Amino acid sequence: MANSLKKLVSCVILDLDGTLLNTDGIVIEVLKGYLVKYGKRWDGRGAHSIVGKTPREAAAVIVEDYGLPLSIDEFVSEITPMCSDQWFNIKALPGANRLINHLKGWKESFSLIIGGDEVTVGKPSPEIFLEVAKRLNVDPSKCLVIEDSIPGVMAGKAAGMEVVAVPSLTKQSHLYTSADEVINSLLDLQPAKWGLPPFEDWIEGTLPNEPWHIGGPVTKGFGRGSKVLGIPTANLSTEGYSTVLSEHPSGVYFGWAGLSTRGIYKFVMSIGWNPYFNNAEKTIEPWLLHDFEEDFYGEELHLAIVGYIRPEANFSSLESLIEKIHEDRRIAETALELSLYLKYREDPYLKISLHGDNSHL
Ligand code: ADP
Ligand code: RBF
Ligand code: MG
């Protein structure tokens, strides 16, 4: 992680769509339903091209990619009201709540809110950011922009501001080279690096979250966990968990695991593409912090994920990857003893067993 001292700022400018709010999520849900009408199936094509585009530009891509029998304008006029109907379904992106003062509420957490309709040119023009600096009477060089899109990053740099990119394009962080820092999600935002007051939500190397749950039978993975690393991971299928996974960034998490017929154990887990191995598919790989005498493929495993440790990283050697995973293990093992986390050992989700007999739990 680049821990170099950054330029100090006094003002933070947050992009909204795609940075704080998961607007693409509802657009994709609407598209899925819409394509069915034309006998087409959403297959993820176009998802990358929607991000950072104007609605019309994105529409052009979809009409073309799916060979829809209508003009771009017809498409836009049909899809726009369908999306508007879904606004109430928009969710905050992971970590967005760290930037909100919950005593004040969303709107009141910002000194100024400015819309794209208040400027003449959109990003990558710096106009919107320069307008903010002007209205707040702050020098642009003292502003930190937080952006998910490439045009947004370009706009921030063109305004002479510092820019943290939180790419909304999965595995595309290399396209954001002009940003001053690229982070995986707002969970990794460190205001103190920029001379701002630090968040105080980390506890002993962990960021607590409301418990979330994943479960299913233990599946076969790549077969290299225990063999290559000495770190067996009881892989779970990602099928059926696309919504949950889209609500949580890839990274290293920990919590409590219920293994049917065996018991409840601590675990530390990676969710994502394992940059070191550059997997094409996202995997869910919990390492149960217990020595088992045998494998338990096919057994029902339920996870209560209670906190976050770090983003997935690449490593220059296998040894350094292993060393890091052992550090994760120590952090999880210690943190789970804190009452804050210990109480979730009693999470009822861990005791649900498909095998009926829960008496031993
Ligand atoms: P795979 O690639 O098939 O996941 P691994 O080398 O990661 O293979 O080994 C994982 C398997 O090892 C699990 O599915 C489980 O049956 C077994 N196992 C034994 N001990 C543990 C443990 N402490 N945590 C997770 N899995 C374990
Ligand atoms: N793989 C990576 O490429 N980068 C990581 O940062 C990383 N962190 C991990 C953290 C934990 C706690 C665990 C259990 C695994 C992690 N792995 C990571 C995944 C590791 O590469 C994986 O278990 C092997 O690929 C086995 O399939
Ligand atoms: Mg595994």
From TrEMBL:
Kindly indicate whether the keyword Metal-binding belongs to this entry.
Answer: no
Under Enzyme Commission nomenclature, its number is 2.7.1.26
Domain (Riboflavin kinase) spans 207-337
Supply the enzyme class, top level. Answer: transferase
The record's section on Pfam families has: Flavokinase, Hydrolase
What are the alphabetically sorted keywords of the record? ATP-binding, Flavoprotein, FMN, Hydrolase, Kinase, Nucleotide-binding, Transferase
The name this protein goes by in its record: riboflavin kinase
Protein's organism: Actinidia rufa
